[in-house]
Amino acid sequence: MDWKFARDGVAITGEEIIKNESSPDAIADLVQSRVDISSLTLPDLIAGDVYKNNPYGTGSDGNPGNPLSIEGLAVSVDNGTLAPNFGQQSRTTYPVLDAKVNYAGSVGSTILAQLQALWSSANRGQQSRTKVCFTTEAIYNSIWGQLQTPERYTIDPRRLEALGIKTTGGNDLAFNDAVILIDEKVPTSVVAPGSTGSGGFFYGLNTDFFELSVHPDRFFGLTPWYKDPYGDQYFMDIFFAGALKCKRPNKQFNLWASGG
Known about the structure:
Elements: E1 4-13, H1 14-20, H2 30-52, H3 73-76, E2 85-86, E3 89-90, E4 100-106, H4 111-122, E5 132-135, H5 137-146, H6 157-162, E6 174-175, E7 178-182, E8 199-205, E9 210-222, E10 226-227, E11 233-246, E12 253-258
Parallel strand pairs: 4-12, 5-7
Antiparallel strand pairs: 1-11, 2-3, 5-8, 6-7, 8-12, 9-11, 10-11
């Protein structure tokens, strides 16, 4: 896997520093506010790319991918429709690199059957199974609507905390014992890969086979301030360097559902 790099920056003039520094009447620290915004902006962009980015072509949101950003689930949890190659290897030559995918699904009465077919295919013949699912609000609500009342709250919050997932103390919706989480970063109201329509995605992930490798010096690390030698400006950069690795794409599944 290729290491990917991203950066954001903060720029401020000497005049702004003088006018906003150490004033007892200041409501907010201008410099610190800009640093805080930059520190949140870059992680937010990376979070979106985790799902949608395809550095080598069209992403799962239907837009051209960012070649400088990480390989998202659009690459790793695909069957060659968006990403013909994975790990620089051809999915045609090595079908084991294909995830279990259905890009022609739909919300409604058959949503559980569609997910079950993908789940059983991805988890066939192994003890390590799907651990967590991410989807859109529309698909989540469609699944909720197909369940009987006693089936809607099935995951003990202590099990989620063991996975590092914070909860409010209540139980959560699950599919085959894997928690289902709504994430606003999951593409929604997008065309089906290689087709048409408008829908969203449901990702079933076995996290035993995922790893996010990051460089310790560039895990959203801040540089010292440095001054423009030819002007009264100061700059700070925030950097990310890492790669999202999936060791077994054939143990992951992905449903695109119209109306999602």
